Amino acid sequence: MPFAFLTYLQPTHYFRLFTDAGNSAFPRVDALPPSVINQFEVDTRYRSKQAQDYDLSWQAVQSGFIGDVSYYTHFKKVSVRDNYHFIRKQFHPVWVFYVLLVRLFTFHNPITDIRAWIQTSHIKRVTAITPVLYSDWNHYQSELLAKSPLVSVVIPTLNRYSYLKAVLLDFEKQDYLHFELLVVDQSEPFQADFYQAFDLPIRVIRQEEKALWLARNTAIQAAKGSLIALSEDDVRIPSDWLSKHIACLDFFDAQVSAGVFYPEGHSIPKARSFFAIATQFATGNALLYRSVFEEVGLFDRQFEKQRMGDGEFGARVYLAGIRSISNPYASCIDVKAGTGGLREMGSWDAFRPSTFFAPRPIPSVLYYFRNYYGNTAARLALWRTIPTSILPYQFKTNRFLLLFGAFLSLLLVPVVLVQVFSSWRLASRKLEAGDRIGFLE
Fold first, then answer.
1. Residue 350 shares a structural domain with residue 310
2. Which segments constitute the Glycosyltransferase 2-like domain (predicted)?
3. CB distance 347 to 305 below 8 Å
């Protein structure tokens, strides 16, 4: 990344990696169009011109710049002071202090760091983002939509018929009609008659094994369409969900349209309300060409009954240099069903296991982190995430309780260490065994 201190704050972000072709995700400032550069503020308070340029490149990415320009293939080192300057602009002061502590505890020069931390104390956090606008989108006539390619929609389901009913009714209302639904049903008891109530081109695949990634892989292999849409049994989608995904692929000449999730009862987060290069991949809301799976493979079954299989797939897509667009116009509501699905397999999320003495985080998380970002980055990710994961899932957005959880983790250090070491050991076994990535036949 352009600023080294991002390693402490975003240790397992896709953009920390260079693609297989040697490119970063950050456009060279001298390659950006003047119309884009002019909407950003040049911060002359940095000590070096290099830091100013990197800041502008960061602004371009955060504001949603998408273009065929030159990208940085390496980053020159900038001063400790300019690194503190940057993170003060981009992150809450608590995280700036966290970086200082990490650097002091890892034996960096305390005088240099404390001086730089103090000297940049006047730098205020910048939270406002001015998105790069794509005005042609509003009246875009997609040639790909006009060709009406077949879309194969993949939905795995496990003991969620009431939730599945709602999303299937949403598919009945789609304004794009050339699609097939492949539902991989792992439910017990299996209700074959359930699907007869829907006026939809559904192919039901009965799967006895309770295995989410096997289900998705099986459906993708059985798909007839040149486009694959990935959905879930506990989401709600608008009537133009498919058409907006397809138009996005066409508009940006992209291979992946990564839709935006937002919780039920809320609206789309402001930071994700505009087009941008995707920073994550979620299997509950995406559309991609079948050729993507042919290039990078199917989902890794090392994540079976665990978490972050979609994140790992997204990393492969990013490394292959495949353009993936965060698409707010193909959004969906994340209902977060309290039963069924992965809830029956052990966890609410990647860092909160089902029982208190189970490995924390879920071992597949460390398998992914260590495999792509290395052991040091994985440890930094643990420092950032474990303290705030002590409290239950329903409190994850409450800042006060998260802070309380961080203090609580200090009291529970022996237990937490046992959880983490257990997870690390199980992840090591996965790494030794290697991936379980299949390819389309």
1. no
2. 152-265
3. no
Contact (Cβ atoms closer than 8 angstroms) between residue 341 and residue 283: no
Looking at the fold, whether 182 and 324 belong to one and the same domain comes out as: yes
Where in the sequence is the domain holding 187, given as residue range(s)?
136-334
- Quick one: which H or E segment has residue 263? strand 256-263
Residues 174 and 271 in one domain: yes
pLDDT of residue 202: 98
**Rounded distance, CA 175 to CA 238, Å?**
10
The strand pairing partners of 153, in sequence order, are 181, 229
* Distance (Å, whole) CA 309 – CA 316: 11
pLDDT score for 399: 64
Alpha helices by DSSP H, listed for 21-137, are 34-37, 49-62, 80-90, 93-105, 110-119
- Specify the amino acid at residue 209: E
CA angle 27, 33, 38 (to 5 degrees): 100
- Alpha-carbon Rg for the chain in angstroms: 23
Is the torsion defined by CA of 346, 296, 68, 30 positive or negative?
Answer: positive
End-to-end CA distance of the chain: 37
Task: Say if residue 274 is in the same domain as residue 169.
Answer: yes
Average confidence (pLDDT) over 170-179? 97
In a domain, 172, yes or no: yes
Q: How many CB atoms lie within 10 A of CB 210?
A: 17
Dihedral angle, C-alpha 28, 18, 272, 349, nearest 10 °: -160
Helices (runs of H) and strands (runs of E) counted in the chain: 16, 11
